[in-house]
Amino acid sequence: MFSVDTLERNASKGHGLVTSVAAANNVLLVGTNKGWLVHHDFAGTDSNELDLSTRGVIDQWIHKVFIDPGGRHSLATICSSVTADTYYIHGKWKKPRVISRLKGMTVSSVAWNRQQINEAFTREVILGTTNGQLYETAIEEKDKKEKYVKLLFEITEAPEPFIGVQMETVTTGTAVRYFVMAATPSRLYIFQGTTSLEAVFMSYAEGIAHFTELPGEIPNSELHFYGKQRRSERFAWLAGPGIYHGHLNLGTSPSANHTHGGESNVESKWLLEYSKIFDNASTAKPCSLALTEFHFLLLSNNLLKVVNRVSQKVVEEERFDSRVDLGSPTMLGLCSDTAGGAFYAFDENSIYEITVQDEGRDMWQVYSSLKEYTAALEHCRDSLQRDCVYAAQAEAAFEAGDYSRAASFYAKTTQVATFEEVALKFVSVGESDALRTYLLRKLDYMSKEDRSQITMVSTWAAELYLDKINRLLLVTDKEDKEGEKEENSAVSEYQSTVQEFRAFLSDCKDVLDEATTVKLLGSYGRVEELVFFAGLKEQYETLIHHYVQQGDAKKALAILQKPSISPELQYKFAPALIMLDPHGTVDAWTTTRLSLEPRRLIPALMRYSSEPHPKDEPNAAIRYLEYCIRQQQNEDSAVHNLLLSLYARQAEESALLQFLDAKHGKGRLDGPDYFYDPKYALRLCLEEKRMRACVYIYGMMHMHEEAIALALQVDPETAKLEADKVEDNEELRKKLWLMIAKHVVQQGKATKGENIRKAIAFLKETDGLLKIEDILPFFPDFSLIDDFKEAICTSLEDYNRQIEELKRDMVDATHGAENIRNDISALTQRYAVIKRDETCRICGERILAPRGMHGALGVARSYSSLVAPFYVFPCEHAFHADCLTDYVIKHTDKSERDRIRGLLRQLTALGNQEPPITTGSKTSAETAPADGRPSPIDQLRAQLDDAVAGECPFCGELMIKEIGQAFIGSEDSDLVVSWALP
């Protein structure tokens, strides 16, 4: 995973020995003991050499060099026996610039604002010095000097140099939170706060800064960080007793009241002691450190040790080759290029590149050996590695006795442990519950192609469920026999297992073999689960049959309400269900989505109606039949007859009469008003002694005499109402009223005077239909005329009034006839005025101009007069007779066209060579025969006038009919082509 290659043999370019190296973004910065700064740009294969020494000052060397993560801004501290200076170098510059305010101070560490720095401006920079001070400065490339230098923090009690410092910023809305970690050889400080760096450190001015102290001797203490996407995630401090490292959680901002609680951002802290790395930790300690994603790179003399951060074990060792001519130089340190992903080691003359290749490939094994299985799974690369981790988890859980958990992990393996091996492991220890768990989880990871394996595994799991249910059932039965009635764990476990088993059946209903599962459930005596499984498999007939046998109509009806149920099951179980729960069954029938046929439910309704029921209980059969007729508009005569029969058997006759009087077919075209059989209804009502209903049926069948005769036996008022129903037959209506009158006159044993008064009152009810003379024959022969004097006088007065009305009607008729004769005489004198320049509306020529013409049918005609015959209509349209005839023949329908042509041929056959000469107002008169009757020619001309000039063709029905005709006929082939769309 790690390899060392020589990058530069002459790193200082001959300007002395290497003292310090920094790297960032493929840029390498090298400082020498003669004050030279060598700038290597590996991306551009370029180098730049700068002399930072001061003329006249001897013994100068570069103490430390620093470069920002982007490789654009650099700092270098040059020291001498007298003073120290710090220079700023931009990547574009050829000449450095001294930071005057740091004169005399040796900078030992730098923290860049990595989140906000850019090419032209460094933003806030924290500088740590060898005197235990932290300064803030900011440098802009275009400025001639630094913007400011502020003292942020100072160690006063026991000053130590700051060997490393790191700054992270987190922006939350408009607020910026600063997190600063700084280290000395024995202490690790943490500072954090908001607003600005000065405000952050000001909060520590009077208080004690939070720090972790690890005293001890170390050749060179260092603080390093590792992270991705410009944010630190881990830190490592090379301290005296060991490597103190941990994880930085900067995702959340602590509240202002916990500003000093810096440890809240540090997680998973750990001290890796040197004794675990070096055989002789007291003498062999690292001089430099580099931090990768999973490893520590430790440099000790000429030996590079690679230590896994998680396992804390040395995984590789690399020894640096030394050149004989250089006298075996000692390695000075390590540096890392986080942006470029490179690591470097250097001595006084050379720089070595440490290449890292796929360092995380074996981390899954490391985490798995430490039993950190979640992290191990995150670092697995393929299914085999995941299987190994799952198997390790399963073995650990199995050894610990957690068999259920072990079963879940074993189910996830597919290559390490076979199905048979795992099943035998659980069988050998008698853990059927764990075996069931293994089988259930195994089903989740099987592919759909393994159909047979899935069926066998699910069947085995079902049997294990049934075995456990029966064992729990035996325990609960034993406790019941011993008198333990309270709820206990066994009962609770039994109920939960049954529910779990039912859920299993629901999930696996499509993969379980139906016959095998039914047999298995039956062998264990689990009837309820058998019914449940039948429901899952949609064996509805079996379910309904079971519920009917149990007398549970509600559950059976609930199944019949399912959308996928067959309507045949509705009819099959209707007789049984309506006997068990009549009203619930009718509710189901009236609310079901299926369109049931009421005729097929008649046997069930008749069976229900044949059984006795409590008087106060509504009849469910009647309710359903009423729903069919009123809501569904059913027209089946069998349904109507059945409802009528049920009404007839009721004690009250009102419902029957209301049903007979209702017009169930009203509103339908060409349909009857009722759909029951009147003859059957009459026979049934006679049997049940429903006389009022019989009267109504007789009347409906137009057997009015029978209806009146029966009504007179029941109620004379009903007879009167029935007689009034006859409206279109006055003679029959009078006959019916005479029947009623006879009954009124002859009924009872009333006195003679009372009978006469009743008869007179009855005559008034007939509204003049019957007269006194009509009812006199019903009285006895010995009745005196004086008793009828008043009625006879009234009748005579009515006759006299009617005679007067007839006289007035005759006079009115005579006047009307005279008016009609006058109108006829006036019609003969009607005329129309034609202007001299009036034109024919068809040909456009003048009406009064002389013209010859060819008439209809192409017959040439000549006229004795100079003016051609023409028609004038009340709408003032005028037409030549021949133009109008041709126009009407062309535009009328075929039958009328044939009739007009026939009339023209008859006129031609009679020898008349001229078309009929007339006008729209018919002002010309024809010579009539001596007897006053018109001649045949006149009759033909009159018929032709009616056909051709009955109405104006432009204003009458002929024009209206032409609206629906096409502009171009099928015979106009040339026009059709010209009107076609391109």
TrEMBL record:
It comes from the Eukaryota. Residues 912-926 have a biased composition (Polar residues). Residues 1-356 form the Pep3/Vps18 beta-propeller domain. Keywords: Coiled coil, Membrane, Metal-binding, Zinc, Zinc-finger. The keyword Ribonucleoprotein does not apply. Its main location: membrane. Residues 867-906 form the Pep3/Vps18 RING C-terminal domain. PANTHER family: VACUOLAR PROTEIN SORTING-ASSOCIATED PROTEIN, VACUOLAR PROTEIN SORTING-ASSOCIATED PROTEIN 18 HOMOLOG. This is Pep3/Vps18/deep orange domain-containing protein. It comes from Sphagnum troendelagicum. The lineage of its organism: Eukaryota, Viridiplantae, Streptophyta, Embryophyta, Bryophyta.
